[in-house]
């Protein structure tokens, strides 16, 4: 403890730094605050944090991927937020995935390139009638083989059961965008306004 003369000297000397410590106490701690209820189906980025997605090494898709091309990942809300419907900080969020039954994209493409004239690619993908037709006509005189190489490479032709190819999770996937008379097209100009 400094003497009173040293304290007085520090008060009078303008070059001696004086350190003051202020302690601010909040009467209501974070644990006592009432949580804010939010709709967990319409959250914004930063309001939640999701756990690492568990990717199956055989299908290269999330393990919980279903036939509706949705997988559910466990997420946690930031502190102070809870879901309206469950009253919990934890919830499951649906993410897009590609349901697959084990048909490899690389295998289908290689079969189409090297054995496409015999219809091996179509047999592999589950189209036996087209495979037999290509086999009997030598791949429609190699023209059908060329068309199938392009269709498989662009992922337009897929497995007959409606599933997707097994492609690496961060691999070369194509998303085919289609529209019909019920699709609304929204044009956005440079000013940020949108029109239909």
UniProtKB/TrEMBL annotation:
Protein localization: Membrane
Domain TM2: 102-150
UniProt cross-references to Pfam families, sorted A to Z: TM2
Keyword Chloroplast: no
Keyword presence, Membrane: yes
Matches recorded under InterPro entries: TM2, TM2D1-3-like
Keywords: Glycoprotein, Membrane, Signal, Transmembrane, Transmembrane helix
Membrane topology term: Multi-pass membrane protein
GO cellular component terms attached to this protein's record: membrane
UniProt similarity note: Belongs to the TM2 family.
The protein's name: TM2 domain-containing protein
Taxonomic source organism: Oppiella nova
């Amino acid at each position: 403890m400094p003497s009173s003369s040293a304290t007085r000297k520090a008060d009078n000397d303008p070059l001696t730094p004086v350190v003051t410590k202020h302690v601010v106490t909040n009467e209501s701690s974070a644990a006592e605050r009432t949580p804010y209820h939010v709709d967990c189906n319409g959250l914004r980025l930063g309001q939640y944090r999701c756990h690492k997605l568990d990717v199956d090494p055989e299908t290269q898709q999330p393990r919980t991927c279903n036939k509706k091309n949705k997988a559910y990942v466990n997420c946690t809300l930031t502190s102070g937020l809870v879901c309206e419907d469950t009253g919990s900080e934890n919830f499951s969020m649906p993410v897009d995935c590609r349901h697959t039954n084990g048909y490899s994209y690389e295998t289908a493409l290689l079969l189409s390139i090297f054995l496409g004239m015999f219809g091996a690619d179509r047999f592999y993908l589950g189209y036996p009638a087209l495979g037999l037709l290509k086999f009997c006509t030598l791949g429609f005189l190699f023209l059908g083989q060329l068309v199938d190489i392009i269709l498989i490479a662009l992922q337009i032709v897929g497995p007959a059961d409606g599933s997707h190819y097994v492609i690496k999770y961060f691999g070369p996937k194509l998303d085919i965008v289609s529209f019909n008379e019920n699709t609304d097209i929204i044009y956005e100009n440079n000013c940020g306004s949108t029109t239909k």
